[in-house]
């Protein structure tokens, strides 16, 4: 009887050992799937402490696994069950009912978890527990607090938020005594400060937090002037604290894969990146008069420019030449739409950002042998497509063969760069008329 089970196996403990022992007792051959770092990140498990190599080594040292594999994507369980001719799928009882769909392929058995012990509890009881204080606009703080609940090892200790229509209260020269005292109290009670105040005040609050010896996670951009950014980095370095910019694309596993494929040579030499980011904007009559006459006036470049510029720099580097801006302004001279052209050595980045403008919001990375297409919203996409004229070496993507990635393969007649055969995987390939 062949048995299979999966897990992260972080901070390997007695509970892990127990479930592996009981799973092995159900058959004579145990396969253990250990989740990859990228798969954990995609599922929201952001506080895994041990590396993949360490976690696999711990499972091996337990002595129960006959074979250890890596779980890299959703949907892999069915493929593994078929590939390894599994008879029983085993998982902890806290997942009761979740994997009943696998009963079509094998027996599914839920085993009771060991009470009083888990990787989550170990992380929370260790030095990895962090107290976070969040300050900023109410809508952003609400989203942050809701998402923080899915990250183990952190706790939002304090919230200091103001309704969006009253954001001018965050301006240094308009801070009331009550806000000042609450801000001081927050700094004294947390380890990390999340800054989501209006853009023009990011520097002020991030600076005060760093001076208080706190780690800082600041919404993009860190500041609006180069010398301010440099000062923040200098403060973090001298205070031995962390300073991070909250740019979701930088932490997106799929974007890392886009960079890997783009730089592998699969699509040839990269000649152009074209990216668009737009965002709905409330009508001008709903923008407070104070905002229209102050530094709080929204700008497409300052609010959204970080996304496409980050992509261009990661693809081409920081050695660029001429930069051309074409800006369309609305009421109160507000920057509504900007097209940016950045010239690199033998390449160009064509970037568009807009507020109150609707566009597709996708990205294309063009090479001499093909191109990558990342659907909207590309800055947090869960998939992308590779379109090239000649079949790539799938080993470049970490797959030994087509079947290792997707067992379904069908012939496609038409132009070599014709639309893709739909794929449920992270990457779809269309090369020379054959879909992989």
- How many beta-strand runs? 20
| N- and C-termini, Cα separation | 33 Å
Shape: globular
Assembly state (oligomeric): single chain
Largest sheet: 10 strands, mixed
Can you give me a brief rundown of this structure?
The protein has helices at 14-25, 37-42, 52-62, 76-83, 119-124, 138-148, 177-189, 202-211, 226-239, 253-263, 289-292, 300-304, 306-316, 402-405; strands at 2-7, 29-35, 67-71, 88-92, 107-111, 130-137, 154-162, 192-196, 215-219, 243-246, 270-279, 323-329, 335-344, 347-355, 363-367, 370-374, 384-388, 410-411, 427-431, 434-435. The protein has 436 residues and is an alpha/beta fold.
Topology summary:
Blueprint: E1 2-7, H1 14-25, E2 29-35, H2 37-42, H3 52-62, E3 67-71, H4 76-83, E4 88-92, E5 107-111, H5 119-124, E6 130-137, H6 138-148, E7 154-162, H7 177-189, E8 192-196, H8 202-211, E9 215-219, H9 226-239, E10 243-246, H10 253-263, E11 270-279, H11 289-292, H12 300-304, H13 306-316, E12 323-329, E13 335-344, E14 347-355, E15 363-367, E16 370-374, E17 384-388, H14 402-405, E18 410-411, E19 427-431, E20 434-435
Parallel strand pairs: 1-2, 1-4, 2-3, 4-5, 6-7, 6-8, 8-9, 9-10, 11-14, 17-19
Antiparallel strand pairs: 11-15, 12-13, 13-14, 15-16, 16-17, 18-20, 19-20
């Amino acid at each position: 009887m062949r048995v299979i089970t999966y897990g992260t196996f972080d901070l390997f403990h007695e509970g892990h050992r127990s479930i592996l022992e009981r799973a092995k007792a159900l058959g004579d051959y145990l396969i253990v799937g250990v989740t990859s770092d990228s798969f954990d990140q995609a599922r929201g498990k952001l506080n895994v402490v041990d590396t993949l190599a360490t976690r696999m080594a711990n499972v091996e040292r337990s002595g129960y696994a006959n074979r250890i594999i890596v779980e890299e994507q959703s949907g892999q369980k069915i493929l593994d069950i078929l590939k390894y001719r599994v008879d029983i799928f085993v998982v902890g009882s806290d997942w009761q009912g979740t994997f009943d769909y696998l009963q079509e392929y094998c027996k599914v058995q839920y085993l009771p978890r060991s009470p009083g012990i888990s990787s989550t509890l170990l992380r929370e009881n260790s030095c990895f527990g962090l107290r976070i204080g969040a300050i900023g606009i109410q809508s952003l703080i609400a989203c942050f607090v809701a998402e923080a609940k899915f990250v183990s090892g952190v706790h939002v200790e304090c919230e200091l938020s103001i309704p969006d229509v009253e954001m001018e209260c965050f301006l240094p020269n308009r801070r009331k005594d009550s806000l000042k005292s609450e801000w001081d109290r927050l700094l004294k009670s947390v380890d990390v400060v999340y800054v989501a105040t209006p853009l023009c005040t990011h520097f002020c609050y991030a600076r005060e937090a760093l001076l208080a010896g706190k780690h800082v996670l600041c919404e993009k951009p860190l500041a609006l002037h180069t010398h301010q950014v440099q000062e923040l980095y200098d403060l973090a370095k001298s205070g031995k604290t962390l300073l991070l910019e909250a740019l979701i694309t930088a932490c997106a596993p799929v974007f890392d894969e886009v960079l890997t494929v783009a730089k592998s040579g699969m699509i040839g030499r990269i000649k152009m990146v074209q990216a668009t980011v737009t965002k709905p904007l409330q009508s001008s009559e709903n923008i407070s008069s104070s905002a229209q006459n102050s530094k709080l006036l929204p700008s497409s470049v300052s609010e959204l420019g970080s996304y496409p510029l980050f992509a261009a720099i990661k693809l081409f580097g920081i050695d660029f030449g001429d930069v051309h801006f074409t800006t369309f302004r609305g009421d109160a001279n507000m920057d509504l739409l900007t097209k940016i052209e950045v010239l690199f050595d033998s390449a160009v980045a064509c970037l568009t950002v807009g507020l109150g403008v609707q566009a597709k919001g996708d990205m294309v990375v063009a090479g001499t042998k093909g191109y990558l297409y990342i659907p909207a919203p590309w800055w947090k996409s869960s998939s992308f497509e590779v379109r090239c004229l000649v079949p790539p070496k799938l080993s470049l993507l970490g797959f030994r063969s087509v079947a290792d990635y997707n067992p379904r393969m069908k012939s496609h007649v038409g132009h070599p760069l014709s639309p893709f055969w739909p794929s449920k995987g992270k990457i779809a390939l269309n090369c020379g008329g054959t879909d992989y």
